[in-house]
Write a structure and sequence with these properties.
The complex is a heterodimer of chains A (154) and B (387).
Chain A lengths: L1 H14 L6 H12 L4 H11 L3 H10 L11 E6 L2 H5 L2 H12 L12 E6 L11 E3 L2 E3 L4 H12 L2
Parallel strand pairs in A: 1-2
Antiparallel strand pairs in A: 1-3, 3-4
Helix pairs in contact in A: 1-2, 1-3, 2-3, 3-4, 6-7
Chain B lengths: L20 H6 L4 H11 L11 H10 L6 E6 L8 H8 L1 H15 L3 E6 L7 H17 L5 E6 L9 H8 L23 E5 H13 L1 H5 L9 E8 L5 E6 L2 E2 H8 L4 E6 L5 E4 L7 E2 L9 E6 L4 H15 L5 H19 L6 H15 L3 H16 L1 H5 L1
Parallel strand pairs in B: 1-2, 1-4, 2-3, 5-11
Antiparallel strand pairs in B: 5-6, 7-10, 8-9, 8-11
Classes of the chains: A alpha+beta (154), B alpha/beta (387).
Chain lengths: 154, 387
């Protein structure tokens, strides 16, 4: 916990104690820990002099600010129409089979989380997905297999 | 490209030979003259709503007070739209120059770009370019700095007042209007918020002049537009074309020969069936678009397309107002029930009424525009909804 406290203190120092600093702070924690724990949110609330409910309310509004533990690599497969038409289902199946989890789940070793997401803005190169912030487009079951195998060996 | 469809090279054209040359020339001009040029150019916002840019700037300029803001809306989330990503990748400098011109005109010292979380991979390059801008601004004596704020995966934050809420560290829930952003925007201060492409258009108007700019497009839709073309198309991608083109021409150029329908303006836009291609103009006098053009051929089920849109809206609705929160769910459940035969066909008319109710009662553009795709798909492809 002491380590987390230091991280939060550092972020508050960097971004300030204004309400406008809340999003950058939440985003920075998610970048480091892949999710926001209850402890993180209460600590941030204390530092910014907000109620924990305000911090929780803000965090849970945004789909990229996870409040449940996620894997080290969060895979988000685009499910919006263009990607859906061009074979998103096969991509999801490929990943599910390789990781042996269902969409929405995290692997036991906490290395991968598989999610669906709305339009990523790669409609002309669908299907597409994000692994953390990196984009992969023009996916086929074959190249998805290759991409994921590389992450699995990391 | 065929002869009918001419590509334009305005937005993506090369930078001027000197860094921020147009900006430097423009800052010495009178604010009123700049606004007059933009007004004469006929430029309307490129995010989809099409509000005249010059008026937005003029209203904000006329507001009293020292503290004003310029915000670039780079929260491009409309399904089928990806042109802002391309603009920010290829010509970010033009965007920042456009923002700086706005800052000078309205009297703002601070500009922000709100970039969607999905585009975080663009951040390192954009930050480098901002550093170049900020340094150059200091050199030529412009008191206007730019920063980037990130979104975190919420479509609704592309709605201007939801975007302000998000930047203020709150849930991205749209505000009541009025007051409009020109009076009370970010931190309740007068704010100009424009789409990425709009700022580039302003810069180009300042460079080539309104007369040259007006030569592109039609009476109601001046200038060029960056289109994001996807779906059943042999050459999907980004195309900068003149506004005001008939949809037939577009389909001849981009369709695969078997085009059944085109969704113009994304999930919140309109679905145009084949029989109406001829009479439909792409532009403000016909079907407006923020750039999204999704093409469907006859192998696609329009029921699946609509179902996908409704799931999208259901998830992205902020949940603040009842018409949108409950309406999106009920529309989805309703078409599922009709498809399964649990509800009679006339139930579709009930659902159409519901979508019309959402149009007049929802708090923001999200809930109001669900009816666009819903009624245009249900009325044109009724048999696909049933069988």
């Amino acid at each position: 916990m002491a380590a987390t406290n230091n991280i939060i203190k550092g972020l508050v120092e960097k971004y300030g104690r204004e309400r406008t600093s809340l999003m950058p702070i939440l985003q920075a924690i998610v970048e480091q820990n892949n999710y926001l724990s209850d402890y993180d949110m209460t600590e941030i609330a204390r530092e910014l002099d907000l109620s924990a409910a305000q911090v929780y309310g803000t965090a849970t509004f945004y789909s990229f600010l996870d409040t449940t533990q996620r894997g080290k690599y969060v895979i988000r497969v685009c499910k919006t129409i263009s990607c859906d038409m061009h074979g998103k289902k096969l991509i999801l199946q490929t990943i599910e089979n390789m990781l042996k989890i269902k969409t929405g789940e995290t692997t036991q070793d906490k290395k991968f989380t598989l999610l669906e997401t709305n339009c990523l803005g790669w409609c002309h190169k669908g299907p597409s997905m994000l692994i953390n912030e990196k984009v992969y487009s023009d996916l086929t079951p074959e190249n998805t297999h290759e991409i994921l195998a590389e992450y699995m060996s990391k | 490209m065929s002869e009918l469809v001419q590509r334009v090279d305005l937005i993506f054209g090369e930078y001027s030979d000197q860094k921020y040359k147009t900006l430097q020339e423009t800052i010495n001009r009178q604010n009123e003259d700049i606004i007059k040029d933009i007004l004469d150019s006929g430029l309307r916002g490129r995010g989809g709503a099409g509000f005249p840019t010059a008026l937005k700037w003029k209203f904000t300029m006329e507001q009293p007070g020292e503290e004003k803001y310029v915000i670039c809306n780079a929260d491009e989330g409309e399904p089928g739209t990806f042109k802002d990503r391309e603009i920010l990748t290829k010509v970010p400098r033009k965007v920042f120059a456009g923002m700086a011109i706005c800052g000078k005109v309205i009297g703002a010292k601070k500009g922000y770009m709100y970039l969607r979380g999905e585009y975080k991979f663009l951040l390192p390059d954009l930050l480098k370019e901002i550093e170049v801008y900020n340094e150059h601004a200091k050199e030529i004596g412009i008191d206007f700095t730019i920063e980037i704020r990130m979104g975190s995966g919420a479509y609704i934050c592309g709605e201007e007042s939801a975007l302000f809420e998000s930047m203020e560290g709150k849930r991205g829930e749209p505000r009541n209007k009025p007051p409009y952003p020109t009076v009370s925007g970010y931190l309740n201060k007068p704010t100009v918020i424009n789409n990425v492409e709009t700022f580039v258009n302003v810069l180009m108007i300042c460079r080539i002049g309104p007369i040259q700019y007006r030569k592109l497009g039609t009476l109601d839709s001046r200038g060029s537009k960056v289109f994001s073309v996807s779906g059943d198309c042999p050459k999907p991608g980004i195309y900068e074309l003149e506004l005001g083109m008939p949809l037939t021409q577009f389909v001849d150029e981009f369709g695969d020969g078997d085009t059944k329908a085109v969704q113009v303006g994304g999930a919140s836009g309109f679905c145009v069936p084949r029989k109406k291609f001829k009479e439909t103009i792409i532009g403000f006098e016909g079907v407006p678009t923020g750039g999204s053009m999704m093409i469907f051929n006859s192998s696609r089920s329009m029921y699946n397309v609509l179902h996908n849109y409704l799931e999208f809206f259901e998830e992205e609705s902020c949940g603040q107002c009842t018409p949108c929160r409950v309406g999106c769910q009920q529309l989805r459940k309703g078409i599922e029930a009709v498809k399964r035969g649990e509800k009679p066909v006339i139930y579709l008319d009930q659902l159409m009424k519901l979508s019309e109710t959402m149009k007049i009662t929802a708090k923001c553009g999200l809930g109001q525009s669900v009816a666009n795709s819903f009624s245009s798909i249900v009325s044109n492809f009724k048999e696909e909804m049933i069988y």
